[in-house]
Design a protein that fits this description.
Blueprint: H1 4-11, H2 14-17, H3 19-28, H4 54-71, H5 80-89, H6 105-109, H7 116-121
Length: 135
């Protein structure tokens, strides 16, 4: 087992080697975007009736997609993000308000649930107040 000081010494060069980790490193030190702690995965309330409400789902997807559209840090991850951004950019207003909800299914289907966006790229994951959890 490594001593705590030795572990920290091993961690320091990682943000330079892996830029996605650099953003999290800054956040955990209180600098940069986002919050000052690691992302938190909240349990899904799948046993509550609201979880299955289509209207609430649409409102939440629009909220999350709008945050993603404004940031675009995740453009080079799974195909969900390029698909989402192309969908928005080709809409009449080039904003999410003119994208029909029926067009969201391919975006969600392209998500591989790898969590790279959640753990390494997104500065808006919980405990950030925007509480983004894609898709």
């Amino acid at each position: 087992m490594l001593a705590p000081g030795r572990l920290a010494a091993l961690w320091r060069p990682l943000p330079r080697l892996f830029p996605a980790l650099g953003a999290r490193w800054k956040a955990t030190k209180g600098g940069g975007e986002g919050v000052s702690s690691a992302p938190i995965r909240h349990p899904l309330a799948w046993n509550k009736e609201e979880f299955y409400d289509d209207k609430a789902l649409d409102v939440e997807m629009r909220r999350v997609f709008d945050v993603c559209h404004g940031c675009r840090r995740c453009f080079n991850l799974c195909n969900s993000f390029p698909r989402l951004f192309e969908l928005i950019d080709s809409s009449p207003s080039e904003e999410l308000d003119t994208v029909p909800s029926s067009a969201f299914k391919p975006v969600v289907d392209d998500c591989t649930l790898c969590d790279l966006c959640y753990l390494a790229k997104c500065p808006y994951t919980p405990p950030h107040p925007l509480n983004v959890d894609f898709p």
